[in-house]
Amino acid sequence: MRTSRKGAIVALAAILVLVAAACSGGGSTAASGGGEQAAAAPVGVQVTLADFTITPSTLSAPAGQALVFQVSNQGQSPHTFAMDVGGKTYDTGTVDPGATATLDVPALAAGSYQAYCAVPGHKEAGMTATVEASTGGTAGTSGTTSGGAAMSSTGMTAQQMADMHQAGVQAFLDGNQTDTQGGQLLRPTIENGVKVFQLTAEQVQWEISKGVFKPAMTFNGTVPGPEIHVNPGDRVRIVVQNQMDQPTTVHFHGMTVPNADDGVPFITQPPIMPGEYWTYEFTIKDPPGMYVYHSHFNSTEQVGSGMYGALIVEPKGGWKSVYGVRPQDEYTMFLGDGPLDYVLNGKSFPATLPLTASRGDWVLIHMANDGSLLHPMHLHGYHFEVVAEDGFALSRQNRYMADTLVVAPGSRYDILVHAIYPGAWAFHCHILPHVEGPQGMYGMVTALVVSK
Ligand SMILES: [Cu+2]
User: Fold this and answer.
1) How far apart are CA 401 and CA 358, in angstroms?
2) What is the Å distance from ligand 1's center to 424 Cα?
3) CATH of the domain spanning 3-19+42-137+146-174
């Protein structure tokens, strides 16, 4: 975290914490019983280092869930935060005075673990803490957490809950949580006037949030796969190489294509077996808008694990020729759920990227849901205009304003936001278990950040 941004971050964090609090009223996600939603996201644990203490001295954590220790050094000396688990040492490395770091620790079995500063002499000087990993809501029964404060039904103190929410928001606002991003533009080669795109189906470990890797099935190694941009009338060839250990096919969702290029195994083509390739070729007959390519083989696993990408038919005269205004900012937002958990563009909050705009911009967002659940996407502070459905621009009288748009599996929408209100405005799925638990926000949360 850069200190120069600290004031702004704290202010934005306050906004988003308020936002989160407003959204989270009502039923809580049960901490006991280890529901699937709770198991999906790593659990943040707040740690403060000083000269020469670790606070709190007893760190309560759920057993059986990946942990992310959010470490802040408020001392005058460099320190580390380290833990020995099963013969392996997990260590942040040096955290300078005033700096922060995170330490990812895989799921722990229930029990007590020692944590310490690994700088020589500091452990002996008293820089130790106990990590109590427990199942269900029994954490902290000894009352040894900070101040011996009362536990909420979540097994955390109110302060711990607030701290974890804040840590997630800070990580989001710090940005660049993961090294990878999906949806990058795929450049074609031109062969005799045909735009040729190369897609490779491959299995990778995909980082959905910092330090949390999931086995993914991808096009060209990313989730979403790369973006294919074409114009009406283009002749397009898409060569799909299968480097996975199971067959696949590719379907061009919403596109008008010859039947033989529809990508359905044993209806229009044989599956593309491992090591083989298949060529799809067609002319773009559909109007400008958002379309999707995705696997059509073992789809629950393959699409759920990331095999989808945007196929954008761009108007030759720019989007103004279709929607009447010229967008200064253009984003694609893929909704996903399933084996990769709840993700926006293949990332779970806080690793999602914010949508940024300057005040007064028109922001065009192409939205698509390639998950298996409905996701009502809600933008705070604004009403947006729905200008296209399933790749077809709506007529003037059929456009409509909304702040919450239910995006069904397979649906696409183009929406326009006139970014006239500065600030960080949360933009999230409103099915609450997809976005927030006792430890803070996760999953399908991002923000529209409008500069002044
Ligand atoms: Cu949702």
Assistant:
1) 21
2) 20
3) 2.60.40.420
Residues 6+ apart with CB under 8 A from 253: 291, 292, 293, 294, 311, 410
Domain 326-451 sits in CATH 1.10.443.10: no
Tell me what pLDDT residue 136 has.
Answer: 56
Q: How many residues does the chain have?
A: 452
Q: How confident is the model at residue 37 (pLDDT cuts 50, 70, 90)?
A: very low
Q: Decide: 295 and 201 in contact? Cβ < 8 Å.
A: yes
Going from the Cα of 269 to the center of ligand 1, the distance in angstroms, rounded, reads 34
CA 286 – CA 81 distance, rounded (Å): 56
How many A from CA of 17 to the centre of ligand 1?
A: 20
pLDDT in tens, 236-290: 999 999 999 999 999 999 999 999 999 999 999 999 999 999 999 999 999 999 9
* Cα 100 to middle of ligand 1, angstroms: 31
Q: How far is the CA of 342 from the centre of ligand 1 (A)?
A: 7
**CB within 8 Å of 76: residues ≥ 6 apart:** 51, 97
Q: What is the mean pLDDT of residues 220-229?
A: 98
Residues 288 and 230: their CA atoms lie apart, in Å, by: 9
Q: Please tell me the distance between residue 376's alpha carbon and the centre of ligand 1 in angstroms.
A: 6
**Are 3-19+42-137+146-174 and 189-320 in the same CATH fold?**
yes
What is the pTM for the complete model shown?
0.70
Q: pLDDT tens across 139-184, in order?
A: 333 333 444 467 777 788 899 999 999 999 999 988 868 999 999 9
Distance, CA of 129 to CA of 116 (rounded, Å):
6
- Mean pLDDT within 125-148: 60
> What residue segments make up the domains of the chain, in order of their start?
3-19+42-137+146-174, 189-320, 326-451
On whether the 189-320 domain is CATH 2.60.40.420, my answer is: yes
Q: For the residues 72-84, what does the mean pLDDT come to?
A: 85
What is the Å distance from ligand 1's center to 429 Cα?
Answer: 5
CA of 220 to the centre of ligand 1 (A): 26
Buried b / exposed e along 308-335 (16+ C-beta atoms within 10 A): bbbbbbbbeeebeebbeeebebebbbbb
Whether the Cβ atoms of residue 231 and residue 189 lie closer than 8 Å to each other? no
- Which among 380, 298, 365, 301 is positioned nearest to 335, based on CA atoms? 365
Mean pLDDT of 177-197: 96
Burial of 76 per CB tally in 10 Å (0-12, 13-18, 19+): exposed
